[in-house]
TrEMBL record:
Keyword terms, alphabetized: Coiled coil, DNA-binding, Repressor, Transcription, Transcription regulation
InterPro entries given in the database record: DNA-bd_dom_put_sf, MerR-type_HTH_dom, MerR_fam
GO function terms (MF aspect): DNA binding; DNA-binding transcription factor activity
PROSITE patterns hit by this protein: HTH_MERR_2 (PS50937)
Protein name: Transcriptional regulator
Domain of life: Bacteria
Annotated HTH merR-type domain residues: 7-74
Keyword Protein transport: no
Record organism: Teichococcus aestuarii
Amino acid sequence: MADRAKLWSVSALAREFGLTAQALRFYEARGLLHPRRQDGARVYDYRDHARLRLIQKFRRLGFSLEQIGEYLAQYRAGRPNAAQFRLGLARIEARLAELRQMRRELDETITELEAMHEDAQARLRCACHNAA
């Protein structure tokens, strides 16, 4: 967990997460990060650090920035209630269903390509034998 007293500059936080400064500013413009100003420069605290970790995790899982923003808003508003947890759970279940469907489609495509590959190899072997 990030040190609660630590502050990160735009460049330091971007470097730590492998992002650009523009990406951090984009997340800020979308209301996902809330840096404060210190001596005229943006600085990010441990909350921003934790939010950015969640943003990246949710992005990898395929959630939209809008969905991520809604999730983060639940925690900015205070302790989430049961309805908010149910909403989050429903979104996770929907994403799982999408990913499972994608996996089924990928498995079908792989099976078809493997069959095509075997057929092409057999035809090549046959063509080579006929040419000899």
